[in-house]
Design brief:
α6 packs antiparallel against α7 (about 120-140). This protein has twelve helices and no strands. By secondary structure, the chain is mostly helical. The radius of gyration is 24 Å and the shape is globular. It has a single domain (about 30-210), classed as MFS general substrate transporter like domains (Growth Hormone, Chain: A), CATH 1.20.1250.20. It has helices at about 1-5, 25-30, 35-65, 70-80, 85-95, 95-115, 120-140, 145-150, 155-165, 165-180, 190-205, 230-235. The N and C termini lie far apart (about 70 Å).
Length: about 240
């Protein structure tokens, strides 16, 4: 495909005429737009939820003598569940983006918080976390849309670079917060923190426009005024 598209300075890949823009120069514009900040926070919290599930669920299983393979098996099943994305997308298309985002974060909040309370019954905790991963998949589909729909077309390149920083932020924040939690609480406290973050994101998503992502109804066009000749005939 690359040979067909002619790699190099061809018709499709041309030499840049200007220096690439610096995304840091757009941080001011980013912080001036609350909708972009909210969309970025959705991505960070969603990514932190995945960290809590992917990293700390297997550790919890090993600590509670559930075997060192259970975590990997559940992660494999979760990856296979990505094939459910088209069905989730169809469900989401019949509703607003706001409702889909709130549903995803509410599911994560309820299931992860409940999982932290049932740590005395490890199998129940694992089952709740595994169920919560399906809501994380739903968020993978819809949680990035509020940012993409709010950014201006002229700023998409720079704002996309800022948006992608959520991976680095979540990759640093999650282990840091987990380290602080483990100083005073068992590993189930990390699941509780993920649940609290889900509640915060659910509350923040309530400020999204209720019809965000819905198909707009075109206004009925007014009939053209009759021409003078038509008016005379009507008289």
């Amino acid at each position: 495909m690359f040979f067909y598209m002619r790699m190099g300075n061809g018709k499709l890949i041309t030499r840049a005429k200007q220096h690439p823009p610096n995304p840091l120069a757009f941080l001011g514009r980013f912080f001036q737009q609350p909708r972009l900040i909210a969309g970025w926070l959705f991505a960070v919290i969603r990514s932190c939820g995945w960290w809590a599930y992917v990293v700390y669920l297997p550790i919890f299983a090993v600590q509670n003598n559930l075997g060192n393979q259970l975590g990997g098996m559940l992660l494999s099943v979760t990856n296979a569940a990505l094939f459910l994305s088209p069905f989730m997308l169809r469900w989401m298309q019949n509703r607003s983006v706001r409702r889909a985002v709130r549903t995803g974060f509410l599911g994560v909040a309820v299931l992860f918080s409940t999982a932290s309370l049932t740590a005395a019954v490890p199998l129940v905790t694992v089952a709740l976390l595994f169920t919560g991963s399906f809501f994380l998949i739903l968020l993978d589909i819809c949680a990035g849309l509020p940012f993409l729909m709010a950014v201006k077309p002229s700023e998409r390149t720079e704002m996309s670079a800022i948006y992608s920083s959520f991976r680095d932020v979540s990759g640093i924040a999650t282990p840091g917060v987990a380290w602080l939690i483990l100083l005073a609480a068992p590993i189930s406290g990390i699941f509780a923190a993920a649940g609290v973050a889900g509640v915060l994101a659910w509350s923040l998503a309530g400020r999204l426009h209720p019809r965000l992502g819905e198909t707009r109804i075109k206004p009925v066009s007014e009939p053209d005024p009759p021409s003078p000749a038509t008016a005379q005939i009507a008289e």
